[in-house]
């Protein structure tokens, strides 16, 4: 059995829309901060038939919808498809039993699917390493019949880039949670030829800077615990129907992603705040103008954002806000603004508040 833990990430430049839906190849680059909590722990072991169990933050078993199980089973199939491109398809078990224990309330704008698929990808990498030690597999089948005339190869350790590809096949943003600190999901490396640009491994994540680089905090305000009706998977599929979509993709490629990475590397909070908030509103404008339109923000979101903006201006605080596919507001700040942001957040009587720092990415337990 392999056990891994992972955490959500909060996107600074958002991934919204695909260039290839089945492989979840994004239409643009994105980047994020990996958080240290809340976490997801997943255990995976060989099983004659596919089996999935999931436990909620309060420890009760989650009643899984057919589509949730189908998504995880489909992810296993895509993982095998990716591994077959590396001649490793037979190293992963035919089927598995998976147990998910999550401390993340689902579908409220804290990326639970990112943490789940990052932990799952890590578990598959662990199973591959374990299975490749001492067991016959495609690389050394010649040695099996020949009384191991050829020595067994060392354990196969997938690279973090490969693990990020596996995570991405379940949830695009999950690719970034493999890495600690600040990470980017690269939509398409510059050297890819058009004929190969939609291959299953043609988008992957990389670390921009480790968690020790810049001590930022994310104070997360959750105005409602109600699950959203339309998830991001469906939203990505129709993002291109927005008249604003193409302009968004161009702005990220030409300017935003570069400005964001530069601001992170230089620890320039003001530059970071401007580009992150610009990109957040741009993504929500695309969502609201695609067909069918998606309205993830509510009145509480707008009120909190207005009040945080006032607080920032009044007290000159290094704090920025951003929202993913839900009404939840992420207030990202430096140590200098932490106390004021905490006080503001805990005074919001109808909001649940989570406090996170920068995390170290997916790990084995
Ligand atoms: O990874 P997905 O399919 O859950 O999509 C994530 C979408 C956003 O959270 C809105 C943006 C992002 O980059 O995380």
Structure description:
By secondary structure, the chain is α+β, with helices and mostly antiparallel strands. It has a single domain (2-364), classed as Ribosomal Protein S5, domain 2 (2-Layer Sandwich), CATH 3.30.230. Helices cover 37% and strands 21% of the residues. The strands form four sheets. It has a five-stranded mixed β-sheet, with helices on one face. It has a four-stranded antiparallel β-sheet with strand order 2-5-9-10. The chain has a four-stranded antiparallel β-sheet with strand order 12-13-11-14. A hairpin with a 4-residue loop joins strand 3 (18-20) and strand 4. Helix 2 (112-131) crosses helix 4 and helix 7 runs antiparallel to helix 8 (269-289). The radius of gyration is 21 Å and the shape is globular. The chain starts with a strand and ends with a strand. The model is unreliable at 137-149 (pLDDT under 50). (3R)-3-hydroxy-3-methyl-5-(phosphonooxy)pentanoic acid is lined by residues 11, 14-16, 30, 111, 113-114, 171-173, 232-233, 236, 324-325. The site of (3R)-3-hydroxy-3-methyl-5-(phosphonooxy)pentanoic acid has 16 residues, from helix 2 and helix 6.
Q: Strands, helices and their partners?
A:
Blueprint: E1 2-6, E2 9-13, E3 18-20, E4 25-26, E5 30-34, E6 40-46, E7 51-55, H1 66-84, E8 96-102, H2 112-131, H3 141-145, H4 160-168, H5 174-177, E9 182-186, E10 204-209, E11 216-222, H6 232-238, H7 245-266, H8 269-289, H9 299-315, E12 319-322, E13 329-334, H10 335-346, E14 352-357, E15 363-364
Helix pairs in contact: 2-4, 7-8
């Amino acid at each position: 059995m392999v056990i891994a833990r992972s955490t959500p990430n909060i996107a600074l430049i958002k991934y919204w829309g695909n260039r290839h839906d089945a492989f979840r190849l994004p239409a643009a680059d994105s980047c994020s901060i990996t958080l240290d909590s809340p976490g997801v722990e997943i255990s995976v072991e060989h099983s004659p038939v596919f089996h999935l169990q999931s436990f909620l933050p309060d420890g009760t078993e989650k009643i899984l919808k057919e589509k949730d199980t189908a998504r995880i089973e489909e992810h296993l199939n895509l993982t095998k498809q990716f591994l077959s491109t590396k001649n490793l398809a037979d190293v992963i078990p035919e089927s598995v039993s998976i147990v998910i224990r999550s401390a993340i309330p689902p579908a409220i704008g804290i990326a639970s699917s990112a943490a789940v698929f990052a932990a799952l990808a890590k578990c598959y990498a662990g199973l591959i390493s374990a299975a490749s030690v001492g067991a016959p597999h495609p690389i050394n089948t010649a040695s099996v019949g020949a009384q191991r005339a050829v020595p067994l190869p060392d354990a196969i350790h997938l690279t973090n880039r490969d693990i990020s590809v596996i995570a991405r096949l379940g949830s695009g943003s999950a690719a970034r949670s493999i890495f600690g600190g600040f990470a980017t999901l690269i939509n398409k490396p510059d050297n890819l030829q058009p004929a190969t640009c939609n291959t299953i491994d043609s988008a992957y994540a990389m670390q921009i800077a480790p968690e020790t680089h810049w001590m930022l905090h994310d104070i997360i305000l959750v105005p409602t615990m109600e699950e959203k009706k339309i998830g991001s998977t469906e939203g990505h599929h129709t993002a291109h129907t927005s008249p604003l979509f193409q302009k968004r993709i161009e702005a990220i490629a030409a300017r935003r992603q570069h400005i964001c990475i530069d601001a992170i590397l230089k620890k320039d909070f003001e530059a970071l705040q401007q580009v992150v908030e610009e990109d957040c509103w741009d993504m929500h404008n695309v969502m609201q103008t695609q067909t069918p339109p998606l309205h993830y923000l509510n009145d509480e979101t707008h009120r909190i954002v207005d009040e945080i903006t006032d607080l920032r201006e009044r007290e000159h605080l290094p704090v920025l806000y951003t929202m993913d596919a839900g009404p939840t507001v992420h207030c990202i700040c430096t140590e200098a603004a932490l106390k004021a942001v905490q006080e503001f957040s805990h005074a919001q009587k109808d909001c649940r508040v989570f406090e996170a720092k920068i995390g170290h990415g997916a790990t084995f337990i």
